[in-house]
Amino acid sequence: MRVTWITEDDAPPIVEYGTISGQQYPFSETGTTTSYSYLALYHSGNIHDAVIGPLRPSTTYYYRCSADRSREFSFRTPPPSLPFEFVIAGDLGQTGWTKTTLQHIAAADYDMLLLPGDLSYADFFQPRWDSYGRLVEPLASARPWMVTQGNHEIEKVPLLEPRAFKAYNARWRMPFDAGASPSRSNLYYSFDVADGAVHVVMLGSYADYEPGTAQHEWLQGDLAGIDRRKTSFVVALVHAPWYNSNKAHQGEGDGMRDAMEALLYGARVDAVFAGHVHAYERFTRVYKNREDLCGPVYVTIGDGGNREGLAEKYVDPQPKTSVFREASFGHGRLQVVNATHALWTWHRNDDDEPVVADQVWITSLVSNPACNK
Ligand SMILES: [Fe+2]
Question: Does 33 share its domain with 97?
């Protein structure tokens, strides 16, 4: 587990941890410290990260960081096998709506959070990255948060800040260089959970994706390396949706879809989750814009609570492939129950937590003989 934290003053990048709350921290790890400046005016605090472990699965660890040794945090490691529950929330931001979404997420247990881009909406104003960190800390310190980038993370300024993703890459370092299929960029990576029962592919909508590019080559290799006798479900995350019947951001995911859809289809990816459009939409199984029983289920879950508000206008008539669409804030949950069945649910902020606004059982494509000739 990578622990990331920021101190204003100089402090060593040390995490102390153990399985007993209180003063017992038998293990410790020293990591590294970085920082960055932005537009000459902003200087980040010391950004520390340390990878701790090996850790036991399904275990609560208590830990403290060098920032404030009197503060104890805890997290629970993911389970070693199915069932496994993901929370998926996109376009989170840091508004009152965001707070409601986070409250709903915290109200029910889960193993890992996946975020398909657009985190802080700092939008060049770097102190908002700090306030976002403080806002999500209670949740992000307690479960693994696995994120990929959105357009709001680019923060490139011609001549002055030519390097894109400066703050994002400094603050949200993901394990792109670890595991069985390392990539060379923090903007795309993959990992397994539940001893390989689920493979998660985090794609970069704002990294080059055409055939011949590093991301495309990496994705080909990553998908080719999956052993579907062991891996029941494969899910992918992108930011700009490949299928979208909302009037907002129409066509923005098409280039990436043209470049990569056949790869995901060939690997029998079960579901693709996107953000960017500030609404909820679920499609049936689709390939090349038509219903296809061996294609992925597509879901837009960009309704986390950003400051731009909801995207309320839809294309009429509703495409046949679009099963459910609604402009409300909320979050989703993917409960992978066993090797053949996963339950997807959408939780609308307007409702009490037990109310589910949309749900569907997703059966793994590898369990469908028609898709595995
Ligand atoms: Fe976006």
Answer: no
